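Example for tutorial group B:
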């Protein structure tokens, strides 16, 4: 049976790796993995915040169907991928982020090491040592294995930031190394969904440095796999759990909130250096893909669809759009959002946006949001952008072909009323089919099922 190595980043933007259009020297190990496998350029996580994203991946179910809409355990009776694998004889292990899929005991880990045992989740050699010990032990027992290796970078606090110095003691910071490359503010290009301000530029450089150390962890774990001699028998997958912790990214439903840099290397299945640029895939699809790799049946009730046909170079119908959701921040504040995107348009419904409630999330910590607020005092466009971020609009519509940064909300454009109506209908049908508890609220907000025909005014 095939071993499975799932490596995750914590808050890495979908465009950060060089193989996904990012800086050439940001992620050399990920780029090498991409050259050996297949990249997906329309891969999305179901929800752009850590625990709901990871819980959805491990259950193969939408957050509103597994119970972990925020930072809470999955519901009793919900199956998890480790059930399927352990029943097939796999030994299962996890490195980092152990408490971010709960209840922890429900996953039946044979080996678990959390951030305090891994240099605060930032020490590549600690990951390599634990990974190699786990893989070698499984080989000695003659058992296939599943290892979920979760880097804690590039989650805040970013490398070299004031926040990092205030968050951990000198002793704690000595437990992990500097990134193998540290970026400076004058050498980075700020993503197009953020204003190019000194504070934003400085923080983005810190973020890239932390991303490089995440890449160092990836390289260390892959080296451990090579040393065990099991690489040719191992399916390797890399993803990020959500976008980077900046305004208009993590904890939202924008393109850069849920876009994830999905890389898959499956010896004998994927073609080295291949890419899939067209099919929309969701990380819910990993659960049935793991079942394929293990040779076990996919249980009933799973929301994802196996990636195996795509990995073998085939094409599939029904992959021309993707749905994403958001429910709750890490501070347990509810900001209900639903989204449907295709190759051209992205539509977001903000169930919380009533004109007075103000958004607040971790992505506003640090340098970037204060820099935007300061600049807003003298720059009307930045002021409008910041004001919109706080209160939103009930509906957002973006032409992603010309505006991937989601800067210009077209929901009130009469010329796009037919597109808006179609997206409303599509989202309403999906919410109903998945048992979304807000399906009726959505319909009453934008019109009944028969009225979702394109009016630009909800």
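The residue assignment follows.
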């Amino acid at each position: 049976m095939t071993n499975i190595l799932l490596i995750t980043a914590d808050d890495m933007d979908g465009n950060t790796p060089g193989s996904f259009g990012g800086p050439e020297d940001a992620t050399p190990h990920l780029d090498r993995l991409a050259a050996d496998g297949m990249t997906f350029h329309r891969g999305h996580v179901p929800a752009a915040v850590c625990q709901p994203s990871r819980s959805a991946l491990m259950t193969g179910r939408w957050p509103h169907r597994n119970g972990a809409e925020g930072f809470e355990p999955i519901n009793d009776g919900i199956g998890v991928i480790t059930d399927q694998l352990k029943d097939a004889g796999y030994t299962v292990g996890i490195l980092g982020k152990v408490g971010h899929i709960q209840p922890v005991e429900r996953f039946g880990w044979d080996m678990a090491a959390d951030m305090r045992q891994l240099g605060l989740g930032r020490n590549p050699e600690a990951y390599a040592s634990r990974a190699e010990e786990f893989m070698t032990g499984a080989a000695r027992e003659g058992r296939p294995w599943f290892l979920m290796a979760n880097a804690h970078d590039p989650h805040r606090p970013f490398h070299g930031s004031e926040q990092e110095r205030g968050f951990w003691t000198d002793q704690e910071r000595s437990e992990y190394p500097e990134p193998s490359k540290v970026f400076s503010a004058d050498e980075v290009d700020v993503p197009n969904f953020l204003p190019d301000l000194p504070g934003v530029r400085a923080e983005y450089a810190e973020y890239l440095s932390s991303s490089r150390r995440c890449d160092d962890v990836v390289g260390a774990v892959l080296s451990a796999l090579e040393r065990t001699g099991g690489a040719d028998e191992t399916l390797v997958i890399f993803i990020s759990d959500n976008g980077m912790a900046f305004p208009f990214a993590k904890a939202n439903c924008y393109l850069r909130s849920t876009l994830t840099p999905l890389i898959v290397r499956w010896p004998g299945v994927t073609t080295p250096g291949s890419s899939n640029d067209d099919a929309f895939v969701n990380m819910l699809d990993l659960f049935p893909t793991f079942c394929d790799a293990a040779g076990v049946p996919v249980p009933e009730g799973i929301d994802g669809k196996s990636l195996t046909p795509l990995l073998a170079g085939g094409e599939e119908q029904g992959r021309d759009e993707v749905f994403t959701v958001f429910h709750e921040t890490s501070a347990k504040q509810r900001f209900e959002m639903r989204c449907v995107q295709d190759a051209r348009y992205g539509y977001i419904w903000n169930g919380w946006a009533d004109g007075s409630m103000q958004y607040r999330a971790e992505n506003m910590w640090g340098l970037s949001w204060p820099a935007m607020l300061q600049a807003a005092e003298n720059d009307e466009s930045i002021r409008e952008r910041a004001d919109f971020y706080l209160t939103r609009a009930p509906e957002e519509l973006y032409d992603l072909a010309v505006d991937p940064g989601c800067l210009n909300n077209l929901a009130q454009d009469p010329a796009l009323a037919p597109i808006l109506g179609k997206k409303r209908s599509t989202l309403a049908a999906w919410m109903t089919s998945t048992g979304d508890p807000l399906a009726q609220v959505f319909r009453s907000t934008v019109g009944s099922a028969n009225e979702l025909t394109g009016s630009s005014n909800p």
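Residues 90 and 143 are 6 Å apart (CA to CA). Compare this with the pattern of hydrophobic and polar residues in the output above.
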